[in-house]
């Protein structure tokens, strides 16, 4: 197990390096920030002085080393709009909201997806199976922000059960609709994967044995089938968590939640490039971390992967 | 967009316990023709194909069949409900929503197709070269692939498009194309790794065939089925991604309509005027759903083993 974890950790290094390289390339392409810092009328000498002060006269390779250094200290640059607020701080504030949203959505998705997947696998090709498959097919074709708008129209405008938007720390009511709209989208992929994996597991010999010895349907499905079927589902849940974060970017602004999504949304509209780049690099690093955790969990659940190759 | 090739969206008609594969018919007939026949027997796939063809026709003929121009404003009819004057209502600038949806189909379909073509081109080449040459070439290319797939979908397309003050078609193609190639690269690589061990490849090599010829004449044709399926599904993924980018204002700019952009510009009005979001949003869902169903149909048709397995 430890060798596996070690090997997997080593694999992360080139990826993190590559992510940093892409991020550096993007921030280079976004132009030198000096222009934005000085008034239009600044003399060329002043611009030159500033360039030297911030190290922009150095070769790209040297600046990349500096960028890596800052990145490793968690320094993602600072906003060009919000009085030079560090991007790190904006992310930290935003994440408190986005994490709640993503976790809530994940719970919604796992419950709905798991239950509908198990029911479909229990009675394949039944009306229930077709219903939940159709639901899954529509779910993966739905833009998260469109579902967000529809749910808002129904539950906040028409029925007036829930607030129409905004956020109060500690008040769950403001999170219900955002979690539902993000969660329902993700439900689709979890449902169809649970169904397919469970169906495959149920065709195994040991399931027949369990049935033959007279075990009821529930223990067969949940006790014998699910533990094995869950293994691939874990990977998808990890991937889904990443897409939830992306979905959050598109839905938060609709509900007026002050998470990372709104940070990025506002940054796009004020052309605050360092903030956009910083958030995207942050997401990429989170994604690398999630994949790492998923792979380790996977190996933990399935010994064949641990000892393989 | 990440697409998991192992998980079809809908069960095949004969899926499930006791599902039996179709027995091979008329041994020796063209497998592609057989696959197409199988596909067209499935009413769901047929319906999906019909909707896609309709959307393509609408996109091409938008200039002829749209009742209004896409930026034509009918003063005094701002936010009019669907009815006789505007079939699907009008937006806050008194523009006909139906006409804008029709013109918007151009954006969605073109971006979907071109971005997919670009990412397929990159992905297929990377996968082929990586698997065929192996060794350090493979290792390097796969690390690059890992790096690109480390960015969760839009998170790389957003900063790329945000670099430009006025994002245009070309930039969106590029951004989505450069993001979406990693999945296909991995699949082609896996496929080539299996195929290149086959006896006929060894035979070709023994005859002195060049690498290029082996790759393109002997290996690639055997990877076509998965490529077709993934390409189809990724058109849908790219349409969704473009809608997301438009929603963030990072795609074609108003007044030219895109479905995501229509939702975005209606974000302050939709509480009171539902039609400004419901129809453009439904256009996205209907199109992407049809493409996904077609992709599933293609998968089942091209690989009968799959539908038998499940």
Give the amount of beta strand of chain B, in percent. Answer: under 5%
How many extended strands of chain B? 0
Mean pLDDT of chain B: 81
Shape of chain A: flat
Largest sheet of chain A: none
Taking the alpha carbons of the first and last residues of chain B, their distance comes to 25 Å
Any idea what the shape of chain B is? elongated
**What structural category do the secondary elements of chain A indicate?**
mainly alpha
Give me the number of helical elements of chain A. Answer: 13
Describe this structure in words.
The complex is a heterodimer of chains A (309) and B (310). Chain A has 309 residues and is mainly α. Helix content of chain A is 78%, strand content 0%. Chain A is built from 13 helices and no strands. Chain A has helices spanning 2-29, 34-37, 44-54, 60-72, 87-122, 127-140, 144-158, 173-202, 205-212, 217-255, 260-269, 273-301, 303-307. Chain A is flat, with a radius of gyration of 24 Å. The model of chain A has no long low-confidence stretch (mean pLDDT 81). Chain B contains 13 helices and no strands. In chain B, helix 2 packs across helix 3 (97-133). Helix content of chain B is 65%, strand content 0%. With 310 residues, chain B is an all-alpha fold.
